Here is the input.
Amino acid sequence: MAVVALSADPRGMPAQTREVHAALRGVTRVYGRLAALGPLDLDLVKGEFFSVVGPSGCGKSTLLDVLSGLGRPNAGSVTFEGAPVAGVPDGVGIVFQEDASFPWLTVADNVAFGLRRAGTDPAEIARRVDYALGFMGLTDFAGAYPAQLSGGMRQRVCIARTLVTQPRLILLDEPFGALDQQTRLLMGDELLRLWRETGATVLLITHALDEAAMLSDRIGVMSSRPGRFIEIVETGWPRERDSRIVAEERFGHVTARLWSHLREESLKAIGKKSVP
Amino acid sequence: MTREREVIMTRERAVTLTRIAWIAGFVVLLEAVCRLHLVNPLTLIPPSEMATTLWGMLASGEIAGDIARTFSTVAIAVVLAVAIGFTLGVAIHALPRVRQGLDPLLASYYSIPTFVFYPLFVAIFGLNSVPLIVLGMAFGVPAMILATLNGLDRVPRVLMRTARSYRLGRLATLAHVVMPSALPYLLTGVKLALAYAFIGIIAGEFILADAGLGHAIAYAYDGFENRTMYALMLFVLVVVTGLNMTLHAWEGRLMRRRARA
Here is the structure.
């Protein structure tokens, strides 16, 4: 039987030989009188693919907000590459759940957006945009407007727009939430390819256990609100992997492990007691 | 999808043709009514005569001064109304409390007959273009404020978050995200400001002015110069409709580009 390695430390401290890329320490977030998050600790290891799963409303997106610098924690500290996070740091790219493509710009102009605003040299912009369009399979749609594309294609545009800025930490907030299952699996493959080729650290927020199990090196399982990590599951997948691992026995074990924790928390989240 | 587009285009073309047919039919009917003397020629002249008279007036240059006066007044009023309305709209949007207080005032503004203040404007600014510009702006500014508020309200939150994720400052966000996103709504404001400026200024000229198209129409009316009066009215109608249709076409193009497939 395959082994699902579990981290003994619920804070998810990685092996000491690995470099910490971003860290949350004692982070809490409160909205009015509602405690949304924490206190929560997390160390993201440089170059890893980390997913966060948890019941609805557990503060997954709040976690991404705080980590990205889009939101501030009420207590605790957030660091990226050793420096405290205040506002979105250089080197962090975010892909949102909603369609965030600019409808007034063509696909190519959308992808070039961040580089133009940063004043990158036009020749360099052209080179990187060409590469990103090719990488995401958008070359033939460079001159199209987002309205002419499907939801999956528009999400690719947003990923390409993040990719061109060469982020070292990519944060994705349920980017495939609105897509059908087949498209999600294929987009997952593209995300893995992107992760491998860029060497970036990836944090993916998702509500899909299979997606988390298929893509990640480690998966943080969050409790119901206020969200904390109740377990960090290590998948032990090789770096070279794709959606075909869903056929492996171990994939079933990882997913089952995630669900065994999440079932309890999801029941709490909808106000029901655990049923044996 | 291309097939869908084609169908939409064909349907749009059919609608445009129907519209033109309606207008043409109305003009022909009017021509017939006049030619058959069903109405008194002193009351109404046939459209063809309006057009030929107008052509003659334009060719001779006799109304060039009035045209220049009205159009320059309208242009100034529109530019000011759009600039002031947009700036105030952005400011009010940024101050929710001020907005709460202003909302009922803005909503009821249009019940005020602004024209009653025209004599006051003349008394304050003198008999020149200034009171007309004020009159032309009087409806355009609130229209532009409302259009700006509407446009800014509809900028998707995720686009604002995207702007922050690219570390854009306030001005860069306004220029590269907020403005382009709100553009179709702003354009509606511009369209209204233009229409209101024409109405306000021509009506103002009609009441009291020393030049301009409104003044020329009033002058012709007082002198029983039916041909001149109708020719000028036709001119105003064609120009205003043409300008509005151009803006409308631009607005439609923007909207189509954004309509999710």
